[in-house]
Amino acid sequence: MYSTKYVIAAIIIFLAIVTSPVWYDMASGEPIHPKLAKPTGAHCVENTEWMKAHHMLLLKDWRTMHVREGKVLYTSQTYGDVYNASIEECFKCHRSETNFCEKCHDYMGAKIECFECHTYPELVEEYNK
Known about the structure:
Layout: H1 4-18, H2 20-28, H3 48-68, E1 73-75, E2 82-84, H4 87-91, H5 97-108, H6 121-128
Antiparallel strand pairs: 1-2
């Protein structure tokens, strides 16, 4: 019914198309990552690798601490510094939503829920002009 050589050729072409991003990434030598705006502070609340992986958990913990427990201060496990447990603390160094948050979340395919309630400093500055 089907010609075997055409089926095999179609499967090979399909696999080549589906895996082309992987082959391109391997051939370029460097993974394609978004270029994010550099933060202005000396260091983040916790170390950079931990923040990349767990910043959403930290923000949820801060929300719980602040809203339900009434605690407003957070002590860094990495540096021992004390921070205000609010997303506003992040905005002190990460000044651009479009050049920081959105680029990374778009790359990862993650939805940002913070800005349904919070306003980024760059938007406030633009609004006040």
